[in-house]
């Protein structure tokens, strides 16, 4: 991934919940299950990543058997990552275009 930002620019990385998968190709993130909630054919899974919590909706078969504190690997495809300038800690800055 290439970003249109000046060298040395600090960035924040963002990702939309719909772009996170329990099983898939891409960058891997390791965390632990915080809570799961069955939503019919799918399951909302909330995962602890360090001090952050992220939620995703997964097919019921992919989330079967997950319990709180279970280790889990999430994946995000590089093209789905969002980059923002990190010049203001209280809120992200301008979105950085990627190629």
TrEMBL record:
Q: Which domain of life is it from?
A: Bacteria
- Which InterPro entries does this UniProt record tie to the protein? Mo/tungstate-bd_C_term_dom, NA-bd_OB-fold, Transp-assoc_OB_typ2
- Show the coiled coil region(s): none
Q: Which Pfam families match?
A: TOBE_2 (PF08402)
Matches recorded under SUPFAM superfamilies = MOP-like (SSF50331)
> What residue stretches are annotated with the Transport-associated OB type domain?
13-84
Which interval of the chain is the signal sequence? none
List the protein's name. TOBE domain-containing protein
